[in-house]
Structure formats: structure tokens, C-alpha cells
């Protein structure tokens, strides 16, 4: 694995160096039916002409260790530890085991997650059908070499630059050029890597592979951009860490200077008080907790056969409030069957062959490049033996396929697109069949020539082909879950809207009777209105799917798009979160952030719940961490302004952090949590932590001021302050554990017991001393006041928050 990673990194450097020109010493032009020989393929591979991906590989184990050990905050901790060792304050090094433990947890979990995801990625790697030694085989796309003959069919993504040598295909190059028009490629034409096949089948010879392919540089640019794209939660944590990282150095220096030079404190106590303040400001476990929690979630989902191409999709899915689904493959099974064929009044049985045999000829001439054609081939096996002169494959844009014979042209497709102006004449009987949940196709004779574009001539309909996909057994339960969770479902399909509506009703989708024909939506304004008011959309083109996603996002929705076909790729790319079925097209799978490896839509609720669990629990735990950071930051400023020495020691901060933040935060982050995510991460966390942080500052600050007034020993004040912070910490922890269950109760009780035991049996280690009578009296007074101050500050913050929301809503209403 490491060797392959080094090879990929070398290729990345080559791909980014525009001066490099590589020319193979030997080129082959094999026959398309024979392909390269094994010896020729091995020669190219040996000479470095394999199709090795330039996608940045996953981090190596060595890189994971370095990234977790050599961090900015670990450097700060190292400097602080050295200072404490210099002054001989060894007991205040109690924060080091916590830091080492946190680092080890991060390394172990990331390595475990890396190995799990690597196995899944190997199973889910892009594949291609190659011709070698006259035989076809399906191989990993990285096993291909220059000059290989590859067979491309509808749904395949082109994995290397190639030249068509046999056959004809329609290609969508939108992922490369931004143009969604489908382009026909014939022998001699070039296929660009990164494009995908919409219709047809061809043999193509690879003429640029690996770093030399067109997609390589685009891939590196895209991946580089994606690396910068973080979820809101990670972005918020980055901001917090950056602020603290910058602020703590000048504050630490000021505190030391003030204590040593202005207050005349000994060098040793000046160092320890400064270290305590700085340690209190560092959210040492918060970022790690988020990373570990997300890595564990990725592993949990992997066990459920869900692959994440992008970690941020966990949070995005948890925030989704609109889910766009296709009918086929999501609501229904992917397999399709012909239920019946019904002649129209135009079909003259005495003057032409039997309708099933005509359809048999039609199906025989077409390639099996979609499930509809596979169903037709399975049902209409007998034909008249008529030979086809040319074939026009189905595309999602034209909604028809056709076969040209010597004497006439037969056509099969969606009624609205085939009949066009004559549709109203047959609309009533078509809707009768569609109303029973059938997908209705019109089969007829076309009086013009087919060119792969929209029809212009007249079609004489001969019959209706009725097809159906069975509803997935788990679909009603899955959609009931989304309705319960307040996630709106939009069904977007290329089929007849009435058919889709009936299927959606059967699946239990709310408001499935509200449907619209997308062919009637011509402007962006009409589309925006439709997505706001309808649930089911039929006859949707690929470009419209993309516009639907944009319209929903413009309305402030967080949109998830599911899909499995090439016609879904554009919308998948533009959705906030994209989900693909592994059984679908290569293009859809590679374009999506989440891949359902068993193509089972029923696992979607567990994916959403996993996201909610991670984000909600990290928010809950993060507020614990932030209480300490707010307190330490404000108390440091308080100490600077009043020219007093920071009243606590590092070991005391370690005791508080361990039992009221670190240990409970870690365990609570992995609890089930199905609540909907609302608001922004940082504001949610900050507002929850603010009352407790302010309470800590007010109580400890007042205790220090009163202690000085009553001539209480600084050591006693330090112990009393530690006790006050522990009281506030356990009150906050109890509130966070609500509603209390057995697990949360054990966590809270266990932390409280552990803290008491440390105070009783390890008082010297944590600088806990006996208190004088004056100090005890002050401590009792402030302890009683603590709960009331915390309660009223909480009410004040909530009141201000509610008032701000009202003002904002009023302004938005205006």
C-alpha cells in the first residue's frame, strides 16, 4: 500500500509539472476484437504506461502519526512542560498524560478508520471492461494500460482518454466542459476521460492514461478545492482553535510579566500560574473529539455497507431538510418487467405482423444498455427476423429509442415526447394505465428519419407497452421515518407524473397526490414555484433536475439528492449532499459523496441518524470544553486588569478538565441522539457554554477579591476556586446529561466519584489543601450563590437569544 501511495505522489508531481512530456517508445494498434496481448500489456505497465490514478491517496500511517503528534498545541504543551520542569513543579505536569492519551486515541481511531475505508474503496473502485488476448474481462480501471481496447456502455464513466475504433455512443462531457449537450462519438472520434456514456456501446483504444489523461490535472485541482471544503462544524472549530492559538501567547507573556515583575511573586509561582491560565484556554480535546467521532461514524457506516467519499457529508446529511429521490432504484426495485402490451385503435392486425413480434424485432436490434431494454428483451423474445439498418439509442433528453428498417422506422418512448401534439388524443386511455402505477411507453411508426434529436415528423401509435417496478418492501417505513423527522421528500423522475404519483402514494410519501409535468415548466420562476408547492415531478430532463436542486437551495433548503443513473450526475454534483446506489452507473457512484454499497435505500435513516448523533453530541460535549476556555480567557483578562496573580495551578485545571470535561465529553459523544440539528454550530456551543463560563469567572473573581480583603492565604483561595469550578462543572454536566438514562447517570456518577477519590487520596498531586475557617465560610457562601447565579445567567442568555431571533424574524418579514 505504501509503495502504491509513493507512486501516486510521484505521479501527482508529474501531473502538476506542465513542462514534462512523456512519449512511449512503443505504440500498438490492436484489432478491436482481439485487444492487446498479455505480453504487450505487461510491457506498457512495466514501462510506466498504466492508468494509475492521480487522486491524492489516503494518508499513510506515518502521516497520521505525524499529524497527531506534531501539532501547534502539542508544541505549546511541550514548552509549558519544559518551563514547569525548569522550576521543579513536577506535580503540575498532570496535564501531560491526558495529552498523550488524547493523541494516542486520535492516532488509533484514524488508522482503524483508514484501514476500513481502504478496504471499501478497493471493493468500490471504478472498473472497466477490457479486451485482451481476444477475451473480455472486467478489471479495476487502474489495471488498464496504454493502447488497451475498452468497451464503454451507457452509464460508464470514461476512465482514460480514448479513441473510438468501433461502434457509436452518445457522451455527456458536462463534468469537464459545463455543457450538458450530448455528443455523438463515432469511429475516429476522441473520448475525454471524466466524461460519461449516455447511450450506445463502443470499443475504444486508450491513447492517454494516468497522468497524461485530460482528467488528471482537473482531478488534482478539484481534490485540492475539496480539501479546503470543510463542514460547518469543522470550520467553526478551526476558527475557535485559530483564535485561541493566537491569543494565548500574548496573554501568557503578560500574565508572567505582571506576576513576576509587578506583583513580585517568585519565579516558580509566576510560571505555574501562567501555565495554568494558558492550559485552561486550550481546547486540547475538542478538535480531537470531533475528528475521532467522525472517524468512528465513518467506520460504523462502513459496517452498514455505506461508503463516504467525503467526511463532511455526515454533518450535511444530518442537516438535510429536503430529500430528492428518483422513482426507479429508490422507491422501487431496480429490476423492471413488462406487464402487458395493449394495441391501439390504429393497430391493424390483418395488415401487419403481431405486435409482440414487432416489438421482438425492435428489442433484438437494440443493445441492453438500460433496464427498460433488458425487460423488453426478456419479454419479447420472438420476432419476424426483420433486419435493422440503424439504431437510435434512448437518451434521457429525447425520451425515445428507434430502429430504422428498409421500409419503415419504428419508435418506442414516453407518450408526451413521442406523440407530442397528438398526445391529447390518447391522453385519457394512457392515464388509465398510468393511474394503475404502470410506466407506459408508446410503440409506433415514424414517418421521418431519426437523428438522435427531438422528433419532428408524425408518429402513428400501434400499441402501449406497460412496465412496472415493484415497490421496495422497506420503502414505506423509510419514508415514514423522514416524514416524522420533518424531512420533505421530492420525487423527481423521467416517467409519467401520474405513474410516479401512484407509485409514491403506494410507498407512503406525504402529499404524493401533488404532482406536475416538468415539461410544462419553462422558466426558472415556474420551476421555483413548482418545487415549493409540488411533491412529485414527472418527465424531468437532466438539466431540469439540476435546476430543481438550485431552486431548492435558493429557498434556503439543505438538499440531498439520491440517484443511480447518468441522468442524475449533474444534480448529484450540485446538491448539498449526494447519495448514489452502487448498482447504478459508474458516473453516478464516482460523483456522489455517499455510496450505498448494497443499493439499499432503507439504510438512509441510519445514515441521517448517525450524522445527527455525531453533530448533536459533539455540540453537547463542545459546550463542556468551551466553559473552561471562556472562564480561563476572562479570568486571565480579569487578572491583568486588577493586577492580581492568576489564582489557580495547572494540576487543579487538569483535575477539573479530566472529570467535568474530558472523560464525560468523550463518552457522551457516542450516545444515540436523534434530535434535529438547528442553528449554527459555534453559536449553539458558545451560547450553551456562556452562562457557566460567566458564572465561573464571577464566582472565582469575587472569591479572589474577597479573599484578599479578608487576608485569606492564596493557597486556600486556589483550593476554594477549584472546588467552586468543580461544583459549576458538575451542575453543567448534569444538565447536559438530561434526560438522564442509565448510561448518562453512570457517566455523571462515575466522574463525580472519581473526582472525590482524587481529592481524598491524591490531594498533593492536584494541589488540594486544607482551608482556613475564613476561606471555608467564603466558599460556603459562594457555593450557595453559584446555582442561583448560573440559573439567572442562563435565563438572561436565553432571553437575549430569543429577543434577537424576534428582531431578525421581524426584519426578514419586512
UniProtKB/TrEMBL annotation:
<feature type="transmembrane region" description="Helical">
    <location>
        <begin position="274"/>
        <end position="296"/>
    </location>
</feature>
<feature type="transmembrane region" description="Helical">
    <location>
        <begin position="682"/>
        <end position="705"/>
    </location>
</feature>
<dbReference type="InterPro" id="IPR023298">
    <property type="entry name" value="ATPase_P-typ_TM_dom_sf"/>
</dbReference>
<feature type="transmembrane region" description="Helical">
    <location>
        <begin position="776"/>
        <end position="800"/>
    </location>
</feature>
<feature type="transmembrane region" description="Helical">
    <location>
        <begin position="240"/>
        <end position="262"/>
    </location>
</feature>
<feature type="transmembrane region" description="Helical">
    <location>
        <begin position="622"/>
        <end position="646"/>
    </location>
</feature>
<keyword id="KW-0472">Membrane</keyword>
<feature type="transmembrane region" description="Helical">
    <location>
        <begin position="93"/>
        <end position="111"/>
    </location>
</feature>
<keyword id="KW-0812">Transmembrane</keyword>
<feature type="transmembrane region" description="Helical">
    <location>
        <begin position="746"/>
        <end position="770"/>
    </location>
</feature>
<dbReference type="InterPro" id="IPR018303">
    <property type="entry name" value="ATPase_P-typ_P_site"/>
</dbReference>
<feature type="transmembrane region" description="Helical">
    <location>
        <begin position="652"/>
        <end position="670"/>
    </location>
</feature>
<dbReference type="InterPro" id="IPR059000">
    <property type="entry name" value="ATPase_P-type_domA"/>
</dbReference>
<dbReference type="GO" id="GO:0016020">
    <property type="term" value="C:membrane"/>
</dbReference>
<feature type="transmembrane region" description="Helical">
    <location>
        <begin position="717"/>
        <end position="734"/>
    </location>
</feature>
<dbReference type="GO" id="GO:0005524">
    <property type="term" value="F:ATP binding"/>
</dbReference>
<feature type="transmembrane region" description="Helical">
    <location>
        <begin position="69"/>
        <end position="87"/>
    </location>
</feature>
<dbReference type="Pfam" id="PF00122">
    <property type="entry name" value="E1-E2_ATPase"/>
</dbReference>
<dbReference type="Pfam" id="PF00702">
    <property type="entry name" value="Hydrolase"/>
</dbReference>
<dbReference type="InterPro" id="IPR023299">
    <property type="entry name" value="ATPase_P-typ_cyto_dom_N"/>
</dbReference>
<feature type="region of interest" description="Disordered">
    <location>
        <begin position="22"/>
        <end position="53"/>
    </location>
</feature>
<dbReference type="InterPro" id="IPR023214">
    <property type="entry name" value="HAD_sf"/>
</dbReference>
<dbReference type="InterPro" id="IPR044492">
    <property type="entry name" value="P_typ_ATPase_HD_dom"/>
</dbReference>
<keyword id="KW-1133">Transmembrane helix</keyword>
<dbReference type="GO" id="GO:0016887">
    <property type="term" value="F:ATP hydrolysis activity"/>
</dbReference>
<dbReference type="InterPro" id="IPR008250">
    <property type="entry name" value="ATPase_P-typ_transduc_dom_A_sf"/>
</dbReference>
<feature type="domain" description="P-type ATPase A">
    <location>
        <begin position="123"/>
        <end position="219"/>
    </location>
</feature>
<dbReference type="InterPro" id="IPR001757">
    <property type="entry name" value="P_typ_ATPase"/>
</dbReference>
<keyword id="KW-0378">Hydrolase</keyword>
<protein>
    <submittedName>
        <fullName>HAD family hydrolase</fullName>
    </submittedName>
</protein>
<keyword id="KW-1278">Translocase</keyword>
<dbReference type="InterPro" id="IPR036412">
    <property type="entry name" value="HAD-like_sf"/>
</dbReference>
Amino acid at each position: 500500500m505504501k509503495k502504491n501511495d509513493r507512486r501516486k505522489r510521484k505521479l501527482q508531481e508529474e501531473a502538476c509539472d506542465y513542462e514534462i512530456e512523456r512519449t512511449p517508445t512503443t505504440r500498438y494498434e490492436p484489432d478491436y476484437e482481439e485487444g492487446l496481448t498479455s505480453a504487450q500489456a505487461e510491457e506498457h505497465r512495466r514501462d510506466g504506461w498504466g492508468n494509475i490514478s492521480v487522486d491524492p491517496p489516503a494518508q499513510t500511517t506515518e502521516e497520521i502519526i505525524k499529524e497527531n503528534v506534531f501539532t501547534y498545541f502539542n508544541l505549546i504543551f511541550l514548552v509549558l512542560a519544559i518551563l514547569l520542569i525548569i522550576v521543579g513543579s513536577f506535580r503540575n505536569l498532570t496535564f501531560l498524560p491526558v495529552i498523550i492519551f488524547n493523541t494516542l486515541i486520535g492516532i488509533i481511531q484514524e488508522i482503524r478508520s483508514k484501514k476500513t475505508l481502504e478496504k471499501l474503496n478497493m471493493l468500490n473502485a471504478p472498473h472497466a471492461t477490457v479486451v485482451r488476448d481476444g477475451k473480455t474481462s472486467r478489471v479495476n480501471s487502474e489495471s488498464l494500460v496504454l493502447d488497451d481496447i475498452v468497451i464503454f456502455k451507457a452509464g460508464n464513466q470514461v476512465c482514460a482518454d480514448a479513441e473510438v475504433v468501433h461502434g457509436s455512443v452518445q457522451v455527456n462531457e458536462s463534468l469537464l466542459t459545463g455543457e450538458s449537450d450530448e455528443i455523438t462519438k463515432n469511429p475516429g472520434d476522441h473520448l475525454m476521460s471524466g466524461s460519461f456514456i449516455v447511450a450506445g456501446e463502443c470499443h475504444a483504444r486508450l491513447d492517454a492514461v494516468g497522468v497524461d489523461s485530460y482528467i488528471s490535472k482537473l482531478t488534482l485541482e478539484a481534490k485540492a478545492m475539496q480539501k479546503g471544503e470543510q463542514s460547518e462544524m469543522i470550520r467553526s472549530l478551526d476558527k475557535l482553535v485559530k483564535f485561541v492559538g493566537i491569543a494565548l501567547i500574548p496573554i501568557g507573556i503578560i500574565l508572567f510579566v505582571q506576576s513576576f515583575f509587578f506583583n513580585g511573586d517568585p519565579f516558580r509561582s509566576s510560571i505555574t500560574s501562567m501555565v495554568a491560565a494558558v492550559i485552561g484556554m486550550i481546547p486540547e480535546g475538542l478538535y480531537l473529539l470531533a475528528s475521532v467521532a467522525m472517524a468512528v461514524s465513518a467506520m460504523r457506516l462502513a459496517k452498514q455497507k455505506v461508503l463516504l467519499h467525503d467526511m463532511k457529508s455526515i454533518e450535511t446529511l444530518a442537516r438535510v431538510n429536503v430529500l430528492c429521490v428518483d422513482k426507479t432504484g429508490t422507491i422501487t426495485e431496480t429490476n423492471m418487467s413488462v406487464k402487458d402490451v395493449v394495441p391501439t385503435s390504429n393497430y391493424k392486425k390483418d395488415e401487419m405482423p403481431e405486435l409482440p413480434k414487432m416489438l421482438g424485432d425492435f428489442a433484438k436490434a437494440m443493445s441492453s444498455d438500460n433496464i427498460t431494454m433488458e425487460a423488453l428483451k426478456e419479454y419479447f423474445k420472438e420476432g419476424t427476423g426483420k433486419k435493422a439498418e440503424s439504431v437510435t439509442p434512448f437518451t434521457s433528453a429525447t425520451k425515445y429509442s428507434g430502429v430504422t428498417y428498409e421500409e419503415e422506422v419504428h419508435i418506442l418512448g414516453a407518450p408526451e415526447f413521442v406523440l407530442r401534439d397528438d398526445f391529447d388524443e390518447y391522453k385519457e386511455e394512457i392515464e388509465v394505465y398510468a393511474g394503475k402505477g404502470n410506466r407506459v411507453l408508446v410503440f409506433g411508426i415514424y414517418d421521418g428519419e431519426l437523428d438522435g434529436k427531438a422528433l419532428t415528423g408524425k408518429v402513428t401509435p400501434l400499441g402501449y407497452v406497460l412496465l412496472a417496478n415493484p415497490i421496495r418492501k422497506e420503502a414505506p417505513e423509510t419514508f415514514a421515518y423522514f416524514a416524522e423527522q420533518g424531512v420533505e421528500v421530492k420525487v423527481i423522475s423521467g416517467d409519467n407524473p401520474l405513474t410516479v404519483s401512484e407509485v409514491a402514494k403506494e410507498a407512503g410519501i406525504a402529499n404524493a397526490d401533488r404532482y406536475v409535468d416538468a415539461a410544462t415548466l419553462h422558466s426558472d420562476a415556474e420551476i421555483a414555484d413548482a418545487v415549493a408547492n409540488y411533491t412529485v415531478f414527472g418527465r424531468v430532463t437532466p438539466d431540469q433536475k439540476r435546476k430543481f436542486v438550485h431552486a431548492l437551495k435558493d429557498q434556503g433548503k439543505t438538499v440531498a439528492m439520491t440517484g443511480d443513473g447518468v441522468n442524475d450526475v449533474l444534480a448529484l454534483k450540485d446538491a448539498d449532499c449526494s447519495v448514489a446506489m452502487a448498482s447504478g452507473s459508474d458516473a453516478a457512484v464516482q460523483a456522489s459523496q455517499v455510496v450505498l454499497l448494497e443499493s439499499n435505500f432503507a439504510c438512509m435513516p441510519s445514515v441521517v441518524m448517525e450524522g445527527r448523533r455525531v453533530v448533536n453530541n459533539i455540540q453537547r460535549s463542545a459546550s463542556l470544553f468551551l466553559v473552561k476556555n471562556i472562564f480561563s480567557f476572562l479570568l486571565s483578562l480579569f487578572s491583568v486588569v486588577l493586577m492580581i496573580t492568576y489564582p489557580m495551578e495547572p494540576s487543579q485545571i487538569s483535575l477539573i478538565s479530566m472529570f467535568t470535561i474530558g472523560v464525560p465529553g468523550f463518552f457522551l459523544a457516542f450516545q444515540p441522539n436523534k434530535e434535529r440539528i438547528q442553528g449554527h454550530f459555534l453559536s449553539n456551543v458558545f451560547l450553551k457554554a456562556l452562562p457557566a463560563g460567566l458564572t465561573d469567572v464571577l464566582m472565582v473573581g469575587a472569591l479572589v477579591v474577597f479573599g484578599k480583603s479578608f487576608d485569606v492565604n492564596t493557597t486556600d483561595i486556589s483550593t476554594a476556586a477549584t472546588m467552586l469550578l468543580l461544583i459549576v462543572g458538575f451542575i453543567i454536566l448534569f444538565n447536559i446529561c438530561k434526560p438522564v438514562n442509565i448510561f448518562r447517570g453512570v457517566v455523571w456518577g462515575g466522574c463525580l466519584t472519581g473526582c472525590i477519590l482524587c481529592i481524598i487520596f491524591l490531594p498533593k498531586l492536584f494541589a488540594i489543601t486544607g482551608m482556613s475557617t475564613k476561606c471555608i465560610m467564603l466558599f460556603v457562601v459562594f457555593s450557595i450563590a453559584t446555582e442561583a447565579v448560573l440559573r439567572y445567567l442562563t435565563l438572561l442568555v436565553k432571553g437575549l437569544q430569543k429577543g434577537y431571533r424576534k428582531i431578525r424574524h421581524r426584519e426578514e418579514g419586512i
